[in-house]
Amino acid sequence: MRTITVLSMISLDGVMQAPGGPDEDGSGGFAYGGWTAPYGDEVSGEVFQRIMQPADLLLGRKTFDIFEGYWPGHADSWPGINDVSKYVLSTTRKESGWQNSKFLSNLSDIIQLKNSEGRAIHVWGSSELIQLLLKHDLVDELWLMIYPLTLGNGKKLFNDGPIPAAFTLAEHVVTSDGVIMTHYKRAGGVQTGTVGA
After folding, report:
1. Mean pLDDT throughout 97-112?
2. Closest listed residue to residue 13, CA positions, set 150, 142, 143
3. Rounded-to-integer distance, Cα 128 and Cα 90, Å
4. Are the C-beta atoms of 118 and 56 separated by less than 8 Å?
5. Residue 109: pLDDT above 70?
6. Which residues contact 194 (CB under 8 A, 6 or more apart)?
7. Which member of 40, 148, 169, 182 lies 3.0 to 4.6 Å from 178 by CB, making a disulfide possible if both were Cys?
8. Dihedral over Cα of 6, 128, 78, 112: its sign
9. What is the H or E stretch that residue 140 is in?
10. CA nearest to 5, candidates 37, 53, 71
């Protein structure tokens, strides 16, 4: 069985939309594309380079469209990106000229992929896909880069009813600019009790 890890740059209020640039995703009138740029140098250090090591990718169609238009010509900045398998959940696309791209059509395809043999799977961007994965308890790990700003409206990481779930902190780094990079691993159900009892 493969591990599915969600990697996301989010604001304090959970917005994950268009972290990389002004033209990345302006849907819904989002006006803050590229909001991570002022924090780039330290965040792109050793930890970030480590989490960008080769892994197969599982992407929603909109994120795949963005990646497909950029990464094939910028592979020096993400070693292995052209070689790994890119699995795309889409009801509208079935093929791509980007090597090693494979299209999935439904949740059953994702479950079959997770239960197959192969390398770890990373999910970048893909807000709607992440909602689906969280709702069906298919996320094993989270790598969250939490930036010290609020953005108001925009696509959010936790938006559409993830199941109640507990996670354990496996690793964390805090940059001098206040970005918190956290690695969580799935740890069963939510425990309750009385504080101070």
Report:
1. 97
2. 150
3. 11
4. yes
5. yes
6. none
7. 148
8. positive
9. none
10. 53
